[in-house]
Amino acid sequence: MVTKLQRRTTYRRKLQFLPTLSNSKSVKKRSIVLNVLLHCHKLKLKLEGIHREYQNLMAVRNQYFTLLKHIEIPKEVKVEKVGEEFVVKVSCNKGGDKLISILEVFEELDLNVLQAKVSCSHFFAMEAIAVARDQQTTDIKEVTQAILKAIEKQGGDHM
Question: Per the database record, which ranges form the Plant bHLH transcription factor ACT-like domain (predicted)?
Answer without folding.
Answer: 76-152
